[in-house]
């Protein structure tokens, strides 16, 4: 059975509460959703029943995610929580349940199945570049334009991504 990794959007959408499958998340996501557990104790019930496991990803898997997200141009868009669920997905060789497009893009570049919740999800993984709207020059890192000083904007690269098209699957 494939490990199902849940990000915060999964909890907000109620996925772990309506599924009988075991899910996994990280301590950072657990902290992010703490207001859910305070008001209903629902998350704690999932833990007590063994339907939710909270695992801290190992540093070597976090390093893999950081390197890949640098290559795709997505690093500046990822939160610590996003990086942690991606690292856990790598560690457990799982599938990721999320509606976050940036997280989905990095997961697809890592060749992991992404299960969208309330959106159609992404159809293909893309590499990103940072473009200056004034100079129309592309750069690899998010910053201000070194030529004119304008704020760079993230956009999809015209070059073909090395990842396969996204496969979709319903979770309910």
TrEMBL record:
Which branch of life, at top level?
Answer: Archaea
Task: Give the species.
Answer: Candidatus Nitrosotalea okcheonensis
Question: Which GO biological process annotations does it have?
Answer: maturation of SSU-rRNA
What GO CC annotations are associated with the protein?
cytoplasm; preribosome, small subunit precursor
Disordered: annotated segments? 151-172
MF-aspect GO terms: hydrolase activity; metal ion binding; RNA endonuclease activity
The family classification in the record reads: Belongs to the NOB1 family.
Q: CDD domains annotated for this entry? A: PIN_Nob1-like
| Keywords for this protein | Hydrolase, Metal-binding, Nuclease, Toxin-antitoxin system
Is Nuclease included in the keywords of this UniProt record?
yes
Q: What does this protein do?
A: Toxic component of a type II toxin-antitoxin (TA) system. Processes pre-16S-rRNA at its 3' end (the D-site) to yield the mature 3' end.
Q: Which residues form the PIN domain?
A: 2-105
Q: Does the keyword Signal apply?
A: no
Against Pfam families, the record matches this protein to:
PIN_6
- Name of this protein: Endoribonuclease Nob1
């Amino acid at each position: 059975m494939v490990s199902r990794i849940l990000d915060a959007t999964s909890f907000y959408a109620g996925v772990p509460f309506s599924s009988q499958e075991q899910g996994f998340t990280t301590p950072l996501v657990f902290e992010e959703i703490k207001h859910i557990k305070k008001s209903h104790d629902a998350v704690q019930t999932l833990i007590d029943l063994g339907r939710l496991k909270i695992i801290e990803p190992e540093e070597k898997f976090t390093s893999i995610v950081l390197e890949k997200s640098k290559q795709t141009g997505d690093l500046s868009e990822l939160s610590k929580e996003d990086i942690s669920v991606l690292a856990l997905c790598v560690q457990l060789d799982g599938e990721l349940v999320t509606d976050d497009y940036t997280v989905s893009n990095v997961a697809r570049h890592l060749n992991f199945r992404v299960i969208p919740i309330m959106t159609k999800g992404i159809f293909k993984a893309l590499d990103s570049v940072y473009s200056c709207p004034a100079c129309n020059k592309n750069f690899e890192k998010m910053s201000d334009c070194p030529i004119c000083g304008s704020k760079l904007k993230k956009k999809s690269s015209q070059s073909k991504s090395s990842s396969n098209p996204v496969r979709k699957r319903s979770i309910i």
